[in-house]
Amino acid sequence: MISVKNVTLAYGKRVLFDEVNINFTKGNCYGVIGANGAGKSTFLKILSGEIEPNKGAVEIGKGERMSFLKQNQFEFDECTVLNTVLMGHKHLWDVMHEREAIYAKADFTEEDGMRAGELEGEFGEMGGYEAESNAGSLLSDLGVQEVFHQSLMKDIPSNLKVRVLLAQALFGNPDILLLDEPTNGLDIETIGWLENFLADYENIVLVVSHDRHFLDAVCTHVADVDRQKIKVFTGNYTFWYESSQLMARQINDKNKKVEEKRQALLDFIARFSANASKSKQATARKKALEKLTIEEIEPSNRKYPGIIFQPLREVGNQILNVENLKQSVDGRPLFDKVSFSINKGEKIAFLSKDPLAVTQFFEIINGNITAENGKYEWGTTITKAYLPLENTEFFKEGLGLMDWLRQFVPSHVTDADEPFLRGFLGKMLFSGDDIGKKTNVLSGGEKVRCMVSRMMLQSPNLIVLDQPTNHLDLESIQAFNEGCQIFPGIVLLTSHDHTFMQTVANRIIELTPKGIIDRLMTFDEYMEDKRVQELRAEYYN
Question: Which of 8, 38, 212, 293 could potentially form a cystine with 34 if both were Cys, beta carbons 3.0 to 4.6 Å apart?
Fold first, then answer.
């Protein structure tokens, strides 16, 4: 168990945590959620001992081992990949080295023999004889091929380094596992493996993630960091979100009787409890939900942006025709033989094993770069709004938010006065002093929110989204997701966010060096389709 007692942390006048008291118990996985800047990562660092609170203490069970996913990719540059993983179990690593040092002595004494015997016993109890084999298997499961296992960390690709550090954190079955954004840099298949690994994990896990599908798959509880406190709620992220929204509506509904409200909440709990029995975390989550009482459900204090795209006109019959597009970068083929047309009502998720492929495709159809071959044609009724992967060029000048947004007022708007512009900024939670901020000092998340304000201003009937969840907190991601679901126009998107892709798209197009795979189905159906997987293997080889 982890006990957090009266923990307080402040940086000057800014208080992150004030008298936090909370316990985390074995067998549960806690998703740590909160707005950007609320202190989620800082809280994990307090638990790990990396940050000392101003007041209070963190206590863990006697003899329990804690493991923390490290973020510094350069810390182990001079170590081999396999040894980096083994170092995740510090006591085992220390025993290994002391044991090796004794056996390497030229003048081996009786005392050395006694100590070596003790070490052999410890080594065996900790699984030392299988350690290298287990570490190797863990690396392979995470997509780090055996050819890299004896390489130095500094010599392997950066996308593999994050996987090695994740293997280091998971190695040796720690009693307490702290994971800060563990899915960063992982592909869909590896994220699925990690979901299964954590769903079967029997110790304590605390995880910070913006990936809602991942949180839903692994978490039995949500630890909500809000207003300098942390509250634990039963259920995964979707349960927390929907139950808190339902409770808020119940509170605001003055006409509904108390008995009706209570029954609606009971029905909601029962529905999620039934769904939990089908999930990977079946036993733990179902038991937790069965013990839940209505009193534990609270309305959220969070503010959600208002992301609503309102088309000025409906799309016509001709939307986009693409013929035989081809593109390479530095001699590396990204995609070829890309031909398709878009129909009314379609929301298309684009994907590729090479993420640069989709970005290049979006840049081509938005007229920012030229394809090597092929052509495309937009329909005359189309009004586009594009959220590019990189937005630096939009924020070079240090303008105030109002003046920045004014640059993008479309020609059909005749009266773009201050209240009009404030309305679009306000929907993205810019208000009060925020309006006076200069665009060259904005955070990554604030820049994305500005770009979304710009998109809404265009009144588009077609939106193109390249990684729309980057830099956003869960509240903004949730609002963006729901805005795209209800949008009556066309959506073209690519995202690392599984839930975004699954809930928005009704058509999937995969760009490969040998052509496209094009299916009218959901993202989950696409990833589970056997014929699709056969084609993927053929097109990428």
Answer: 38
Positions of E strands within 281-420: 320-329, 332-341, 347-351, 373-378, 384-387
Q: How would you classify the pairing of strands 332-341 and 347-351?
A: unpaired
Are the C-beta atoms of residues 346 and 507 closer than 8 Å to each other?
yes
| Three-state DSSP state, 529 | coil
Beta-strand pair 320-329/373-378: antiparallel
**Residue bearing the bigger pLDDT, 285 or 28:** 28
Counted residue by residue, the chain has a size of 541
Cα separation, 325 vs 336, whole angstroms = 6
Q: What is the pLDDT of residues 335-392, one digit of tens each?
A: 999 999 999 999 999 999 988 999 999 999 999 999 999 999 999 999 999 999 999 9
In whole angstroms, how large is the CA radius of gyration of the chain? 26
- Specify the DSSP element, H or E, that contains 170: helix 158-170
Half-sphere exposure of 222 (CA within 13 A, CB side): 30
* Whether the Cβ atoms of residue 483 and residue 307 lie closer than 8 Å to each other: yes
Mean of all residue pLDDT scores within the chain = 90
Q: Is residue 279 pLDDT above 60, yes or no?
A: no
CA distance 327 to 29: 44
Cα–Cα distance between 340 and 335 in angstroms, integer? 14
In sequence order, the β-bridge partners of residue 59 are 3
| C-alpha–C-alpha distance, residues 490 and 493, integer Å | 10
Pairing of strands 347-351, 229-234: unpaired
Helix (H) or strand (E) holding 110: helix 110-125
CATH class of 320-540: alpha beta
119 Cβ partners below 8 Å, 6+ apart? 95, 98, 99, 102
The answer for residues whose C-beta is within 8 angstroms of residue 330's C-beta and 6 or more apart is none
CA proximity to 42, closest of 3, 50, 211: 50
Domain ranges of the chain: 76-157, 236-296, 320-540
Residue 436's contacts (CB-CB under 8 Å, 6 or more residues apart) are: 400, 401
Strands 462-466 and 490-494, by their bridges, are: parallel
Q: What's the whole-model pTM score?
A: 0.85
Contact 448, 471 (CB under 8 A): yes
